Each structure stands twice: as structure tokens, then as C-alpha cells.
Amino acid sequence: VQLVQSGGGLVQPGGSLTLSCEGSGFTFEDFGLSWYRQAPGKEREWVGLIYSTGDEINYSDSVRGRFTISRDNAKNMLYLQMNNVNADDTAMYYCKIPTLGYWGQGTQVTVGS
């Protein structure tokens, strides 16, 4: 099982960024997938969950209305679209298969000018 992340980097406040997570080694379409993040000096925080078919998505209060989670089961891809970012969104972001416990390697998002 592998989750390989891409995207991330430096983004200006108010800007947008998309993170990707490609799954392999498991039946991608059978599993719900989550995004987490961890800011420096803070505990890892749940960002959101998308169910296996993509028809139900839950978000944390801190990102609801700004972030969008989506998936393409045909491509084994999970996405996190981040809009209107602010300094509090600076963190290492991780994708995860919650029921199997596998994590992506993480990708850094830094909000600044």
C-alpha cells in the first residue's frame, strides 16, 4: 500500500493551492480517505474525510467553506483544493486511509508573501 503526495509549496494569503495524493497497492474505490495537517509545535489535526464513492464529504470547522476534498477513483487520486488560505493553514499536510492506517509522506504548505 502506498500513498504518494504531490503539490504544496508557498502560497500568498488569500491564494489557492491543490494537493494531490495517489494511491496504489489497494482497491482505491473501496476506501474512504482523509486529509490531516500538522502545524509546527501543534498536534496533527483532522481536515476532512471523503467516503469511498465521493458522495459524502465531511470537513473540520476550520476549513469548511474554503477547502474542497475530491477524488477520482478511475485514476486512484485524492485531492485537496485549498482556497482563501491564511497563515493558520501553514502546515504539513497528509493523506490517510483511516481504516487501514496508512499515511502519505506529507507535503508542506506555507502561507506567506
Q: What does this entry look like structurally?
A:
The protein has 113 residues and is mostly beta strands. Helix content is 0%, strand content 51%. It contains no helices and 11 strands. The chain has strands spanning 2-7, 9-11, 17-24, 33-38, 45-50, 57-59, 67-72, 77-82, 91-97, 102-103, 107-111. Strands 2, 4, 5, 6, 9, 10 and 11 form a 7-stranded mixed beta sheet that branches. Strands 1-3-8-7 form a 4-stranded antiparallel beta sheet, with no helix packed on it. A hairpin with a 4-residue loop joins strand 9 (91-97) and strand 10 (102-103). The protein is globular. It starts with a strand and ends with a strand. The relative contact order is 0.33. The model has no long low-confidence stretch (mean pLDDT 97).
How many helices? The count is 0
| Uncertain stretches of 5 or more adjacent residues | none
**By helix and strand content, what is the structural category?**
mainly beta
Q: Helical proportion?
A: under 10%
Please, what is the average pLDDT? 97
> Which strand-content bin applies to the residues?
over 45%
Strand count, sense and barrel status of the largest sheet are: 7 strands, mixed
